[in-house]
């Protein structure tokens, strides 16, 4: 959870909010994204221990909140604010992690590996090789850990 949620998802959010101009969202899109996130609050069932918070509070988010964003919130709201290539990159990670976390989807593990490899390659193309951290590289080993 920490590799993906506190490492990669937090990094992506920070890049979209404060990264280089080619990937940074304008402030009005960040506000729009925050509003979209908060609008989902009524739909979070009581089994979810934390309710969505705005991006202004992202520095205080817990790993669980980044996980919610990866698996549930991001796939719904990001297509409205991100460029197509950034959204496609995010979706590859989201679907791969969903497969690895969902019991009964073991026949899709190779597909998850392919998605993670695609995520890493496109991450480097979109955000730059200098931002490919050990967390990004570590994704390639998730499938091997899953199989153990």
From TrEMBL:
It comes from the Eukaryota. Residues 1-20 form the signal peptide. Keywords: Signal. This is Uncharacterized protein.
């Amino acid at each position: 959870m920490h590799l993906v949620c506190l490492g990669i998802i937090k990094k992506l959010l920070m890049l979209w909010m404060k990264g280089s101009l080619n990937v940074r969202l304008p402030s009005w899109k960040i506000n729009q994204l925050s509003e979209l996130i908060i609008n989902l609050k009524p739909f979070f069932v009581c089994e979810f221990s934390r309710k969505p918070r705005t991006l202004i509070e992202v520095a205080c988010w817990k790993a669980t909140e980044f996980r919610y964003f990866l698996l549930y919130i991001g796939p719904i709201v990001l297509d409205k604010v991100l460029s197509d290539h950034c959204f496609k990159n995010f979706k590859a990670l989201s679907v791969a992690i969903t497969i690895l976390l969902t019991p009964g989807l073991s026949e899709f593990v190779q597909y998850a590996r392919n998605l993670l490899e695609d995520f890493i390659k496109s991450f480097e193309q979109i955000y730059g090789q200098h931002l490919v951290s050990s967390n990004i590289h570590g994704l390639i080993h998730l499938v091997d850990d899953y199989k153990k």
